[in-house]
Amino acid sequence: MLVTLGIYYLAPWIRWDRGPYAPDQAILIDLSSRRFFFFFIEIWPQEFYYVAGLLVMAGLGLFLVTSAVGRAWCGYACPQTVWVDLFLVVERALEGDRNARMKLDARPMSFAKLRKRVVKHSIWLLISVVTGVAWIFYFADAPCLLVSLFTGHAPATAYTTVAILAATTYVLGGLMREQVCTYMCPWPRIQGAMLDENSLVVTYNAWRGEQRSRYPKSARAKGIPVGDCVDCNACVAVCPMGIDIRNGQQMECITCALCIDACDGRMDKLGKLRGLIAYATLSEYSSNMSLATDEGR
């Protein structure tokens, strides 16, 4: 998240010396002169087929990555995921984890609850505005445009663009969140056709975790066989999509691996081996399940 956000917000401020009578902004889409600058590359309209070729290569690369390591794009680089993660950082800092937020939602309105909500949404709106401002910096000299924005001398299109992007960032990243990935984005449905038994996906190793028990010691004392999963729901609490990975592969899973980190942390506290939830291929999972079944697990 920090890497992608850093690139987005800071890239317009990178300078690149192109000599006299040429802009010194490293990445610039100069619509008035119909030129695109990317460091040492300068592309004119008649050369736009280069950009089309790069987009085709990027699309093929995305297909290749998906077939090899699942929805890595969705989990680590998709703008929707990145900004949702940023908004969640703010939300967790102000309102606590998922359980604390659910309890807060259930409480009647009070001054403390109202204060948290106002502060949270104010920070979200600030992030959204900064996101919109950063976008228009790619279309003009960033330092000059920043001064124009604050002095009120920027073009009306600049303010309109910032307002539109701020609104969409706030709504999609703060309010809709997983609904965008589940209902608006076609990629979850497309990627299902690109995965096979050898594609890496986030997998709950049921052969090791079942049967679940919150009190494994007492269950074993009674002769009840239990697995390593203590049914703490930590994997559910951290999931930005709100799914339970223990229910198997689901279209909503974006392969962000937050459930893996949460489960590994709980396994460390319990003194058990990590990997109850892990990246694995379906063929590996089937093999392990067969071995566990043969051994009487």
UniProtKB/TrEMBL annotation:
<dbReference type="InterPro" id="IPR017896">
    <property type="entry name" value="4Fe4S_Fe-S-bd"/>
</dbReference>
<keyword id="KW-0479">Metal-binding</keyword>
<keyword id="KW-0812">Transmembrane</keyword>
<keyword id="KW-0408">Iron</keyword>
<feature type="domain" description="4Fe-4S ferredoxin-type">
    <location>
        <begin position="219"/>
        <end position="248"/>
    </location>
</feature>
<dbReference type="GO" id="GO:0051539">
    <property type="term" value="F:4 iron, 4 sulfur cluster binding"/>
</dbReference>
<keyword id="KW-1133">Transmembrane helix</keyword>
<dbReference type="Pfam" id="PF12801">
    <property type="entry name" value="Fer4_5"/>
</dbReference>
<keyword id="KW-0411">Iron-sulfur</keyword>
<dbReference type="InterPro" id="IPR017900">
    <property type="entry name" value="4Fe4S_Fe_S_CS"/>
</dbReference>
<keyword id="KW-0472">Membrane</keyword>
<keyword id="KW-0249">Electron transport</keyword>
<feature type="transmembrane region" description="Helical">
    <location>
        <begin position="156"/>
        <end position="175"/>
    </location>
</feature>
<dbReference type="GO" id="GO:0046872">
    <property type="term" value="F:metal ion binding"/>
</dbReference>
<dbReference type="GO" id="GO:0005886">
    <property type="term" value="C:plasma membrane"/>
</dbReference>
<keyword id="KW-0004">4Fe-4S</keyword>
<protein>
    <submittedName>
        <fullName>Cytochrome c oxidase accessory protein FixG</fullName>
    </submittedName>
</protein>
<feature type="transmembrane region" description="Helical">
    <location>
        <begin position="123"/>
        <end position="150"/>
    </location>
</feature>
<dbReference type="InterPro" id="IPR051684">
    <property type="entry name" value="Electron_Trans/Redox"/>
</dbReference>
<dbReference type="Pfam" id="PF13746">
    <property type="entry name" value="Fer4_18"/>
</dbReference>
<dbReference type="InterPro" id="IPR014116">
    <property type="entry name" value="Cyt_c_oxidase_cbb3_FixG"/>
</dbReference>
<keyword id="KW-0813">Transport</keyword>
<feature type="transmembrane region" description="Helical">
    <location>
        <begin position="48"/>
        <end position="69"/>
    </location>
</feature>
